[in-house]
Design goal:
The structure is a single chain. With 323 residues, this protein is α/β, with parallel strands linked by helices. It has a domain of 147 residues: Conserved hypothetical protein from pyrococcus furiosus pfu- 392566-001, ParB domain, CATH 3.90.1530.10. Helices cover 53% and strands 8% of the residues. It has 14 helices and six strands. It has a six-stranded mixed sheet. β1 and β2 form a beta hairpin. α2 packs across α3, α5 runs antiparallel to α6 and α6 crosses α8. The C terminus is likely disordered.
């Protein structure tokens, strides 16, 4: 993946539509040809993933992580102390199917290593009785609370929060189950609803989730424009990431660009004979503005004068020595 490749974020908006019907774990594992010790060992062909369930984003960082896991598996095999967590459910044909609910990265790494010639054999999985009593909502919560591998990124967590809202959970319920504040829930939901351009910037690492949130709260619909400009400013300075220091309100930027012309126009209006014919409040506003500008100019001149070295000042001469 290069910096210009598009990152697919469609999975963040997906809702699992599968209907779970708990089934016998022993029956499913044996049917898959698995062997049992402290957990089950099953062939790769018996494991399934639920469409729309995994919220991982295939960023460069994630792909590198899977690559690292695959290389580890090639060297050491699939670690038995890192089993996949699974759920057994009846399929459409009443057949018991084993679905992975935690360990999608490891499963992808297994597939990658296998595609490159590694013979990794059976995969260790855990199917607990507690797991079998859970609903799709519980399993979704587990993407955050029971994650045994690489922690979810903010955008990925935001997708979980949004999914729970679509399950008709309240902010209070989400906060209680995920162990966070209601404000954090609101922030995650705001992040989940961000413009696709903003979410793409976050996924690429151009901006942090915190920067995105603060900009969205401050600028609303203008957030995309502000963040895009900030990224341009950052790149112009040789930076890979835009931060608050690169933020400039579009209106402020426009005002700065036209400030000299505006000041010249205001002064010409003030000196125009027709100035006295303006409404009193208009004249007062213009005069107040020009007075503030004049005061600022005087203040700037005084500061500049203080910074100049006094005549004959050795220190000053040393400072201004250009040789």
């Amino acid at each position: 993946m290069t910096s210009n490749d598009t990152i697919n974020l469609k999975n963040l908006d997906q809702i699992p539509t599968i209907r779970l019907a708990s089934s016998s774990t022993r029956e499913a594992a044996k049917a898959a040809g698995g062997t049992s010790r402290d957990f089950w060992n099953v062939p790769r062909s018996s494991l399934h993933t639920m469409p729309g369930f995994n919220v991982r984003i295939r960023t460069q960082s994630y792909i590198a992580h899977v690559r690292w896991l695959a290389d580890q598996m090639k060297a050491e095999g699939f670690k038995q102390d890192k089993p996949l967590t699974c759920y057994v459910s009846k399929g459409d044909s009443a057949e018991s199917l084993i679905f992975v609910t935690d360990g999608h990265s490891r499963l992808e790494a297994y597939d990658l290593a296998s595609s490159e010639g590694a013979d990794l054999g059976l995969i260790p999985i855990v199917i607990s009785k507690e797991q079998q009593t859970q609903s799709i909502e519980d399993l979704t919560v587990g993407l955050v609370t029971s994650n045994s591998g690489r922690p979810l990124e903010s955008l990925e967590k935001a997708a979980v929060f949004k999914r729970l809202v679509n399950f008709r959970w309240t902010e209070g319920q989400i906060a209680a189950r995920l162990g966070c504040t209601s404000q954090h829930v609101r922030d995650m939901l705001l992040l989940a609803s961000a413009d696709p351009q903003i979410r793409d910037m976050i996924a690429r690492g151009d901006i942090s989730p915190t920067t995105a949130l603060s900009t969205m709260k401050q600028h609303g619909v203008k957030a995309v424009e502000v963040l895009t400009e900030a990224m341009s400013q950052a790149k112009a300075q040789g930076r890979q990431k835009a931060t608050g220091r690169h933020m400039v309100d579009p209106m402020i930027r426009i005002a700065r660009r036209h400030a000299p012309t505006l000041l010249k126009t205001f002064k010409s209006i003030q000196s125009d004979p027709g100035f006295v014919n303006l409404a009193p409040e208009t004249r007062s506003a213009l005069e107040e503005l020009l007075n503030q500008i004049a005061t600022s100019e005087k203040s700037s001149s005084k500061k500049a004068a203080k910074q100049l070295p006094a005549e004959g000042d050795p220190k000053g001469q040393e400072t201004l020595d250009l040789t």
